[in-house]
Amino acid sequence: MPIRLGFYVVSPFRGDRFYVRSFLDSMDTFSAPDIHSELTEQELQLSLEPDLMPRHVAIIMDGNGRWAASRGLPRIAGHREGLAALREIINFFDELSIPILTIYAFSQENWNRPRAEVALLMTLLEQFLQKERQTFQDRKMRFLPIGRLNALPISTQAVVNDVAEETAHFTDRVLTVALSYGGRSEIIDAVNDLLEDARNGKVSIPITEGQFEQYLTTADLPDPDLLIRTSGEARISNFLLWQLAYTELHFTKVLWPDFRRREVLLALLDYQKRDRRFGRVSQTASSQRGS
Ligand code: FPP
Predict the structure, then answer these.
(1) Domains of the chain and CATH, by start
(2) C-alpha to C-alpha distance for 174 and 143, rounded to whole angstroms
(3) How many angstroms is it from 117 CA to the middle of ligand 1?
């Protein structure tokens, strides 16, 4: 259902409603005309501006269940295909030289899913890490798990911690995986650690934003430049609440298992159209004013 930006008028005669379109409807998050839709993947890639590539992209991978349901398959099949999409995206980011990718693989709320689905997601994660272990080394890529990791099953914790440890020294490429993650609990955990340090005289108050960031699980990373969410939902669902303050948001209706190279290129081209001002006056606006 597209987002409506016009208005409704109630007919005085029949009592029914008419929708009056507004020009803003054409700017609807999901149905804006896509000027790139005719281009091939290669043409899309060539349209990218190398100087405007994001350094850090975060993704909420949503829609596995619906992808499976639309094919009459169990949800589990959607997660398997979702993992295939993830592998493709990791490889493509490498090709595009985007150094940091952060994915929301399992939220704190996801513990409320059926036990079998949770178990399958944990197994998929373990298999993924075992299989990609060597790839992380070959690509000099850090695997950085964030979230309340001690809530994970012991076997999952073991492989998660092992791969994190053996890749901790890599700095040029990072795959951050949010597991049993919630943005509010991350902030609360940071506040509690900070209070502990203040009590022990390790930090003096008041603190700065920069100091606070050092208590977050993403302490060493720049904030995401771009957040992508698939499946038509337009919310951030407790993901990276602090870190997304100035991030550009890209929402697409495409379900995660269908989010492949072409969709990445469309998201990047959308990102490159944005005027990132961080609260300042834009370059163009200020030069037009002669300042
Ligand atoms: C959301 O789709 C997706 C998840 C909760 C899990 C994400 C997992 C993967 C992409 C595959 C496995 C990846 C790793 C790293 C193990 P949904 O199930 O909420 O879909 P729905 O909204 O259509 O039901």
Answers:
(1) 51-274 (3.40.1180.10)
(2) 6
(3) 10
pLDDT value, residue 288: 38
Nearest CA to ligand 1 atom 10: 82
- Of 1, 54, 23, give the one whose Cα is nearest residue 270: 54
CB of 124 shorter than 6 A to ligand 1: yes
Pairwise CA distance, residues 30 & 176, whole Å: 27
DSSP 14: T
**Using alpha carbons only, how large is the chain's radius of gyration in Å?**
22
Q: Whose CA is nearest to atom 13 of ligand 1?
A: 83
Please list the rounded mean pLDDT of every run of 10 residues in the chain (291 residues): 44 43 48 72 96 98 98 97 98 98 98 97 98 97 98 98 98 97 98 97 95 96 98 98 98 98 98 85 48 32
Model-level pTM?
A: 0.87
Ligand 1 center–CA 84 separation, angstroms: 12
The neighbouring-strand residues paired with 141 are: 173
Ligand 1 atom with minimal separation from the 124 CA: 16
